[in-house]
Design brief:
The protein has 574 residues and is mostly beta strands. Helix content is 5%, strand content 48%. The longest helix has 18 residues. It is extended and about 100 Å long.
Length: 574
């Protein structure tokens, strides 16, 4: 096959680089051209694997030249255009990884590897999903991919560049240190997985099982497991203990290797299973490594349930990280009967935005905050066990820190968090002001018990961050509400008619302190409107020659009335 001689490359490059440099206003461009030409002329030539030379036209898949397995593509790309090749991976080479390297590219070069959609009888083969992208910034002239795996098949390789340039793309296999040995479909047949050894395999219709044995010395340190699979394909793996109980599971579409980090395992034997998920073979690699020592202030996987959670201690920070997609870290803390009058604060600090949530013993969320540095503050909890969860975007390089503190005793007349749901509403007494705090965008719920004669009530929340005050009955059916008015801090629900019973008041707003008061205002005027009457089914009857008085509490308030006529007639509404 014809090669691209270094002298020809250097000559082509000298002429074209000089022209491009002149266009950019860089003088004669000879210095830049000479430097780039020297780089291209110095490209190594592998005599054992000759490069496949691109030939135009190659805009369609059936026009593109094909290379099988390891190989090399070489050519000259025009300004703003692309060259296209087909790369075929045979079944025999489906159980190891690959690396892709790029040389050349005048400006902002890119190499794309895409799957190929098969022809369907009506339409020809077409571009499929992107599997790999290698970007080469302007001036770098070289680029390389990390190790990656693909299922056997045909792939489209596109080379793009913002400027005219020669290029070379090399694809080479990465040979593992060891390979799985069949049969290894059960714990009894498991292959031993040694530390610091990359093992490759391909799972088809039965799981591949590896035995992980930890001595007492190894169990004093964290263990990390890295699993890589075919790009864009779904991979499922689980780790079982010697009794066959699953202690963790990883299920993810592969975009990068799965990092199962910070495993805190006791001495013994465990079984790592790579599970089949499709009717075609899935190549994979797996590596077991030692990590840092197991210490009280560091999370340990698995910890995705309250049963496996580490217990937090007040004043002692806990560090952790979300190392894989879908990872959730759970921590536990206990509230003793003697501490139910104390306020608790929990803070989460990190660089990446996370969700930080309080749960009850059953795992139900009681309160959540979202962001990079967030807090669950002013918690006054009944006795029992609770959980804290950290979830969000995985990033094995980003370590977070949780700190628990006792913030003192709860003062009379202050809300008790969490009160984000009616179930955990703070008790409110008639005529007694209640101080509250909105953290971010939040709902605070209060429960009011009403006795005596039915009468009208006003629920007023005074504070700059308050947007809405709403009142509901025990079925959470709206009875009245009021929105904040521009220029007036706070909101009020007025003329709410309440019978004896229990009611819930919801204060909605963003970032601000407020004072909430529930005030009875006496029995309604028989001729006055009665809230709620904002909808047709809540409308009040209007009789002829019987005046009705009303009040619109805010710009969104709407009062609805109805009347009946027994025959066509002229009427006047005033």
């Amino acid at each position: 096959m014809r090669r691209f001689p270094a002298t020809v490359k250097a000559c082509w490059c000298l002429n074209n680089c000089r022209i491009l440099a002149l266009k950019r206003g860089l003088g004669s461009g000879l210095g830049l051209a000479s430097l780039f030409c020297a780089l291209m002329a110095a490209m190594p030539v592998d005599a054992q694997v000759p490069c496949l030379i691109e030939a135009e036209p190659n805009d369609q898949i059936d026009q593109a030249a094909t290379v099988t397995g390891s190989g090399c593509f070489e050519g000259e790309i025009d300004n703003g255009s692309q060259d296209r090749f087909v790369w075929s991976i045979p079944d025999a080479e489906g159980a190891h990884g690959w690396k892709l390297g790029f040389e050349g590219g005048y400006a902002n070069a890119r190499v794309l590897v895409q799957s190929i959609k098969p022809a369907d009888g009506t339409n020809p083969e077409a571009e499929g999903e992107e599997r790999l992208r290698v970007d080469v910034p302007e001036g770098a002239y070289t680029g390389a991919s990390p190790e990656f795996l693909l299922v056997p098949g045909r792939y489209l390789v596109d080379i793009l560049s913002a400027g005219a340039s020669p290029y070379r793309v090399r694809i080479a296999p990465t040979l593992p240190e060891a390979s799985e040995v069949e049969p290894n479909d059960s714990p009894e047949q498991a292959n031993a997985l040694n530390f610091d050894t990359v093992v490759s395999g391909a799972v088809v219709d039965q799981p591949d099982v590896f035995a992980v044995t930890l001595t007492a010395a190894y169990a004093k340190r964290h263990t990390d497991i890295e699993i890589n699979g075919a790009l864009g394909r779904y991979l499922s793996a689980e780790l079982d203990n010697a009794a066959g109980d699953m202690i963790l599971r990883a299920r993810v579409t592969i975009q990068r290797p799965i990092q199962i980090a910070d495993l805190g395992l006791d001495a013994g034997t465990y079984y790592l299973k790579i599970l089949p998920v499709a009717d075609s073979q899935m190549p994979y690699t797996v590596k077991l490594t030692h990590a840092g020592p197991r210490i009280p202030g560091r999370e340990e996987e698995p910890n995705d349930t309250l049963a496996t959670a580490k217990v937090l201690a007040a004043g002692r920070p806990m560090a952790g990280r979300l190392s894989q997609a879908g990872d959730t870290d759970v921590y536990a803390f206990d509230v003793l009967a003697a501490d139910t009058d104390k306020l608790l604060n929990f803070t989460l600090k990190e660089r990446t935005s996370r969700s930080f949530c309080l749960t009850d013993a059953a795992g139900s969320e009681l309160q959540c905050r979202h962001g990079t540095s967030v807090a669950l503050s002013g918690l006054a909890l009944p006795a029992g066990r609770y959980g804290l969860t950290v979830s969000g975007t995985d990033d094995p390089e980003d370590t977070y820190q949780i700190l628990a503190r006792v913030a003192g005793r709860r003062l009379a007349g202050t809300e008790a968090e969490p009160n984000d749901t009616p179930q955990y509403a703070t008790t409110l007494k008639a005529g007694v002001p209640m101080k509250g705090q909105l953290a971010g965008q939040e709902d605070d719920f209060y429960q009011l018990h009403v006795e005596g004669d039915a009468q009208l009530w006003t629920m007023a929340a005074a504070g700059a961050g308050v947007d809405v005050v709403a009142v509901t009955d025990f079925q959470q059916i709206p009875l009245g509400s009021g929105e904040s008015i521009k220029g007036t801090p706070g909101a009020s629900a007025t003329d709410v008619f309440l019978l004896p019973g229990d009611y819930w008041i919801k204060v909605t707003g963003t970032d601000g302190a407020y004072v909430l008061t529930a005030t009875p205002t006496g029995p309604p005027d028989p001729s006055s409107e009665r809230e709620p009457n904002n909808t047709d089914d809540q409308s009040q009857r209007l009789l002829v020659d019987q005046p009705r008085t009303g009040r619109l509490s805010d710009s969104s308030d709407r009062d609805v009335y109805r009347f009946s006529l027994f025959a066509p007639d002229h009427i006047r509404l005033t």
